[in-house]
Design goal:
3 helices, Acetoacetate decarboxylase-like, mainly beta, 8% helix
Amino acid sequence: MTGVGTFALRPPSLAGEVERRLLVNFRVDPTVIGRLLPPGFRPQIVDGYAVAGICLIRLGSMRPRGLPAWVGLRSENAAHRVAVEWDSPRGIRTGVYIPRRDSSSPVNVLVGGRLFPGEHHRADFDVSESTERMRVAFAARDGSAEVSVAVGITDQLRGSRLFADVAAASAFFERGSVGYSGTRDPGRFDGLALRTNAWRVDPAEVLEAHSSFFSDRSAFPDGSAQLDCALVMRRVPVTWEPLTPLEPTASTVGSS
């Protein structure tokens, strides 16, 4: 893939805080997930599996970088993600492909894919959390998606077949802090990079996990997507940096 500038004006970087970021991860048959990826992207493989999941994130004080925090917005958001790699003039790159985004914020829905990368569906969220447990659920207002996740915070990563420990999981997802998502133009993918100097994740035990995306048997036959682990990030200052959009080229189409 190559970067192609399609915005007349480059969108501004946004600053704010990740108040809570819950990553619920699945190990997936690479052939199955590969069929859901656009040409040019291919799944990253960890111990024979592709890695996909749901990011449930509450953002606070989000505003164009340089403005004071008090003007910022707060919102609940969700993204279904697949860890991917792609070819570039600089070699193989890694990140995530995001087939859908959902948000509680009408502002995010309005500007996403227009003034700022990433188109969103409007959704209603139901959240309860403490220092030891959290539950996040949402339903898209158009009925196209619903998710319900509950976790308990733990001191170790247990039961994962993808990652030996929380340090390995943390490093993998930190490398995947670049994300691309589809747009109304099927040949263009908008990109965002999460930047922080305070990266930290904690392990969690999944108590409940349902996603209409992963439970769709027409896309994921029985046994092809299995729950693996969960991670939590809290109170982390971040900057979201828009990236030059990607468009497939003849050299990358079919590489997935």
